[in-house]
Amino acid sequence: MKPQARVRTEVREQDPGSALLSFIERIKRSEKFGGDVVFVDTVPAREASYAELSAPLPPALELALRDQGIDSLYSHQAEAIDRIRSGEDVLTVTPTASGKSLVYLLPTLETALSRPGSRALYLFPYKALAQDQLQGMTALAAAAARHGGVVPGLDGLPGTGRPVTAAIYDGDTPDSRRRKIKAEPPDIVITNPDMLHLGILAHHRDWRLLFENLACVVVDELHVYRGIFGSHLHHVLRRLLRVAEHYGSRPRFIASSATIANPGGLGEALTGRRFSVVDRNGAPRAARHLMFLNPGSSPYTAATQLFAWSLDEGYRAIAFTKARKITELLHSWLLQASTRYTGRVSAYRSGYLPEERREIERRLFDGSLQGVISTSALELGVDIGGLDVCLLVGYPGSVVSTWQRIGRVGREDRPSLTVLIAMPDALDQYFMAHPGDLLKRGFEEVVFDPDNPVIARAHLLCAGAELPLEETRDREVYGRLFSLVHDLEREGTLARDAEGSRWFTLRRRPQRDVFLRSIGATYSIVDEQAGRVIGTIDAVRAFHQTHTGAVYLHHGQQYLVRELEIEARRISVIPADIEYYTEVRGEKETEILEVLREKRDSGIDVRLGRILVTERLTGYEKRRLFGRDRLGLFDLDLPPLTFETVGLWITLPDAIRDRIVAGEGHFMGGIHALEHAMISLFPLLAICDRGDIGGISYPQHPQIGRSAIFIYDGYPGGVGLAARGFEEMADLLRRTVALLRACPCDAGCPSCIQSPKCGNGNNPLDKRAAIDIAGFLLEAGTATEDAGAGRPALRMAPRAVTMPRPVTPPRAAPIRLMGGGTENEPLPTPVRRGAGGSVPGREVTLFLDVETQKSAEEVGGWQNIPDMKLALAVTYNAISSQFKTYHEKDVERLLLDLVMADRVIGYNIDRFDMSVLKGYTQLDLSRVHTFDLLADIYRKLGFRLKLGDLAEATLGIGKSADGLQSLKWWKEGRVDLIEQYCRRDVEVTRDVYLFGNRNGYVLYRDRDGKQLRLPVEWK
Ligand SMILES: [Zn+2]
Ligand SMILES: [Zn+2]
To answer: How far is the CA of 767 from the centre of ligand 1 (A)?
Structure first.
């Protein structure tokens, strides 16, 4: 944290305001740039607004602030702190450098001092931010301690107190330090969501002191939690509150966010708490000048020249680029231009060592660096001091991000200039044509999907491993997602306890399989040269970005993919320096599974639903990095990629197609172009990258029966983008028409309808037809005349699975067999049925158990089961309720009975009993329709359960003996005892089966002896 009522670091001789204005004038009049300046505007200066707290801070904190040069608080700080002190969950929405960290530092320090033992947890999305905040925190705590603001010692004697403590617990924290932090957590624990998930929640018993006393959770930079990351954080915070509640605490939230359209809504969606939002910024600000430049030639050349000019004028400058490669390129061009820049400018990006980055930040702050060229890495956090000029080399992708970057230059006493240099991309060109939109239309929403079932399932398993999932508590916590618990139970990943009201996760530490920045099956990316894993990637992105032969960008570094191994989920790469990039080609289709919402918006029929996307990637293109020329097309051999997600679709009345065709337009080219253009403008609605969304255009969709354009979330389960597009469809379409009309090209270009990610290589595309189609759609009348046919019935395929799948109810008992069954009640229809001749409802089910003469050891191992020889077999006929015993001499009779039965049920029957019998016959025993209970259990549990253990847990009875005992009896000639034992096993098998059949589960004990339910569908 840096002082906010700052001392002037440098006084220009000339009035800084007029100097900058004259610089702007010279740019506008210059031969080089003058013609390319499309827009200039100024956001006027604003005076600081201060306010008093409604109750003063403790004197020690007041004095500590004064030590740091802070005499009074800005109005937004005072307002937020007042509300926090009154117990509200507070969200501060302010731009960069407005002193937002004081908003959480002061209340948490105050609480630490006034309620010794209470704890606060700070969550920062990035490590660098955590480092910065630790320094600010420690400095303020030390200053407070100097003025007597200490946490009293145990005995409460004067002079025994200590300053408020804080420590970072993240991936870089050494083990020894971790143990210490866990055993005795500092007053403030600083971490990130990943570590909270993996290191803290997963081991919450080690963190008892933290959770028992957790008073406050600080969530900084709320706006970065979008899409997949947002869904994950949402669940991590739910788990955090669950665990805290378990230890008896209910922490308050203090959050902060950059300015976005929906801060309160995002905060509530992420945390489940309704926030008190403070968004009236009281920090002062000098005038901000903005200029839009649409260069006729290369935007990079323009950027380099303008950067050099700014430096030559004595300004301190930062340029933001969109890629590491460009960052390095601009830096080297600048150094080539003149030696006078040597040592005065630096590049900055992720991928540099943390020490290097800290050093650059420090030199920027103290002014020894005059300029920096950076990727988005410098957009957030760390104070880099007073810069004057900001070049945005390409539209940063969102209005939110644009203002964050603009906020990196200028100060209260320093006016600033930001120049947006447009690229030939659709969004850039849209803003060049509509500059007011960037300044006045405000900010995008940040969206994620709290109901993404894929992510919810993963976190339910984590939650169930942390504390058992309980009907009473967790149905309230998880709402309708709680029904997923039953799915997970059926799949055998969660198990229910014997009472039936609590679920446990069977896998240990399921948290290790959940990565907060990706979804579903995860592939590891392995750098073959360094021999280490450099990252992970989800299946959808793996196929698109890391197929064999792809050039993959990781933290700006290029890697060439050697091999994508699907089975092993492994991607081998080597670092490379390549002049081309790769794009996949292929085809895709979508099936509508379920319509979630539908509406008619300005005459447009739009629907939102669950869809199944199938992509067949058939090849990839290599294209030159600069210029994008195609270098070649290469084949790919990949299985189809299928995933379920959320999508929106608009249906087009046949009348529109007829009109396009009548006008000699290319209808398919028109809807395809419209789809591209709409996707390119999607970032106007919610923060996203073009790659987060997919699209498919149909001249005739098989289920809808007419033409449709689909736009869907490019992640399994959905990320909330299509849902946002559904809400704003008419608006999106209007903006799309504006984009297309404003683009001066004839047949389409990368600034309007061409997509760098088109799987069809931008073919066919018809810009004119796209404009006409959108125009017709927006003429409300057009669609109305077609209104009758506007809602065609969907043709859902029968397998259009209704989600979530219905819970199997416990089965009513169709028969009672235990303790003298009634003879004539049939067993339910068997799953597998004899080849005919059986009377429906009277199917013969036999339960079978076999004892042998020899042990596996005696015949040379389990592979020789047929040599073990039959000692005795017992069957139980479920229709006649009769047991039957077969000795070795009766084996033919036994085999015949088995073949004749409709079903033979046994425990380990497939692997053992039938193998023993195989030694006696040439008969094809595959004709015996067995149902092996153990095989079914093994499929679900992943390990083999002994019949005795299963019976003990399920029925509360044990087996009478075991196989070894039986072998001994054989040698002693006690066939009578073997018969008793074998019969008993048949009974147990039968009763376990009937229990599962009736209740839909059986019981077993886990390693800790806990009784768990195993769901079964034994019919
Ligand atoms: Zn164009
Ligand atoms: Zn396309």
So the answer is: 8
